[in-house]
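Subject: design request, 181 residues
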């Protein structure tokens, strides 16, 4: 419910702000690290939280990248087995979630990844739009059986691209470029 309310109230930024408040009391860099590990928010939310907490950009980047990349090997290795188990589970919401995740991981967005594999996955993870990122990219790569030799570097490079874009947005780089002209 908290997630739905925050998403309706303004998306990633609102959710990052709420979680920053909720995690108040932890060291600010730990807040950024934790937010970067959360699906939906990931690196985008971590950098937004870092800018809210006035953490220097270079310090925030390390925490965000490590926080966002940490769950990825587990997703690539285990998500199919976990989703299969959830589908066979007697708990209704778990079955529905597993079906939804499998559909999401093999749906329209996945077709471009299937077609272009490395480049598709890199751009999917790297362009910070709602519903994209390292978590979803890893899910798609796993469900489409993209080789780890392609998927791991593509996800990591996509994360670097997303970092550059989000630093420009979160730390005012775009405004600085506009002010030059």
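Subject: RE: design request

Done. Sequence follows.
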């Amino acid at each position: 419910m908290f997630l739905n309310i925050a998403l309706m109230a303004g998306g990633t930024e609102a959710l990052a702000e709420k979680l920053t408040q909720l995690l108040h009391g932890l060291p600010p860099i730990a807040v950024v690290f934790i937010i970067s590990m959360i699906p939906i928010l990931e690196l985008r939310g971590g950098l937004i939280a870092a800018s809210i907490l006035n953490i220097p950009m270079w310090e925030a980047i390390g925490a965000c990248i490590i926080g966002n990349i940490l769950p990825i090997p587990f997703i690539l290795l285990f998500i199919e087995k976990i989703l299969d188990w959830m589908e066979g589970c007697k708990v209704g919401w778990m079955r529905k979630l597993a079906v939804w995740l499998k559909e999401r991981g093999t749906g329209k967005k996945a077709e471009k990844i299937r077609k272009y594999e490395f480049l598709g996955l890199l751009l999917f993870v790297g362009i910070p739009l709602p519903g994209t990122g390292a978590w979803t990219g890893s899910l798609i790569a796993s469900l489409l059986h993209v080789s780890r030799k392609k998927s791991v570097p593509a996800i990591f490079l996509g994360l670097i691209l997303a970092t550059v874009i989000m630093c420009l947005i979160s730390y005012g780089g775009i405004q600085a470029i506009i002010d030059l002209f």
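The chain has a mean pLDDT of 86.
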